[in-house]
């Protein structure tokens, strides 16, 4: 019975993350701000490799396991990612007509990151709920450690896939035509 609830909670947070990402992508930035963001982004990712991508994504994903805070952090991270996508899309005609959520769910690393972040946010909720209900937190340690391992594996694999795709096709910021 608990596994079914855990899966349901996980899918709820997939929806919450995707919704927050989509809302962030709807925020319009002035063109000058978009160009400045894009320039900073290109400098930040120049020469980044799979381990760099993994490290960046893990620094975002692992705090999502913190009870309560992880949900807020996840909402901020997803909305910020959506906003970043909007900035990139505003300077790229190829991306302008593609719904932002599509990019998230059609890229293998996007799906892996979505799953990883949703696992972290949902575990944050479960831990927060256990604390509120005054349930023994000890029984949540093992599943939390297992889920952290899953998230690390997803983000590591996603980092290598994203790095390979950037090497193969170039950065998303180069989709200008």
What does this 3D model show about the protein?
With 177 residues, this protein is mainly α. Helix content is 78%, strand content 0%. The protein contains eight helices and no strands. It has helices at 2-25, 31-45, 50-61, 69-90, 93-96, 100-106, 108-132, 141-169. α6 (100-106) crosses α7. It is globular, with a radius of gyration of 17 Å.
Structural class: mainly alpha
Helical content (DSSP H or I, runs of 4+): over 70%
Shape: globular
Q: Summarize the main sheet.
A: none
What is the overall pLDDT average?
Answer: 89
Cα distance, first to last residue?
Answer: 52 Å
What is the strand tally? 0
How many helices? The count is 8
Q: Quaternary status of these chains?
A: single chain
What's a concise summary of this model?
Helix 2 crosses helix 4.
Could you list some keywords that capture this structure?
single chain; 177 residues; mainly alpha; 8 helices; 78% helix; globular; disordered C terminus
């Amino acid at each position: 019975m608990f596994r079914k609830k855990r899966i349901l909670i996980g899918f709820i947070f997939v929806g919450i993350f995707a919704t927050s990402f989509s809302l962030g992508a709807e925020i319009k930035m002035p063109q000058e701000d978009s160009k400045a963001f894009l320039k900073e982004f290109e400098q930040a990712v120049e020469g980044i490799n799979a381990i760099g991508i993994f490290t960046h994504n893990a620094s975002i994903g692992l705090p999502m396991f913190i009870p309560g805070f992880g949900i807020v952090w996840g909402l901020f991270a997803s909305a910020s990612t959506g906003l970043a996508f909007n900035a990139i899309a505003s300077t790229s005609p190829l991306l302008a007509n593609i719904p932002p959520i599509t990019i998230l769910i059609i890229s293998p690393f996007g799906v892996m990151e979505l799953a990883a972040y949703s696992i972290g946010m949902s575990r944050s909720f479960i831990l927060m709920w256990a604390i509120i209900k005054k349930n023994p937190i000890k029984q949540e340690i093992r599943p939390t450690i297992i889920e952290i391992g899953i998230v690390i594996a997803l983000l590591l694999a996603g980092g290598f896939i994203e790095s390979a795709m950037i090497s193969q096709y170039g950065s998303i910021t180069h989709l200008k035509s």
